[in-house]
Specification:
The structure is a single chain. By secondary structure, the chain is mostly beta strands. Helix content is 0%, strand content 22%.
Amino acid sequence: TYLGEETFSECESLQEISIPGSIARIPKDAFWACHGLKKVVMQEGVKHIGGYAFAFCRDLEEVIIPSSVTKIGWCAFKGCDSLHTIILPKGKKELFAKQLSHYEDKIKEA
């Protein structure tokens, strides 16, 4: 299954999304500026989160990232001012420290 760049960009009706593991790659800008988006759950199988994939989703509060993710692109969550929880599998916090540096105090390992 394929998700194209900017597929949901500026879509204000999305509030919550579960991305199935059949989508291995979330491309850059895929959900850029989805202002109503509050929660993102990525299923096991998602491997790559592209740069600016969720940037400027100003209402985004919670993101759940599975252990299958091996790469988070630059500024993937830039401008997500409401983001208060990023759930990562144990041992992944250090791997993504640079990409998630603005949200270090929001990361929880599960």
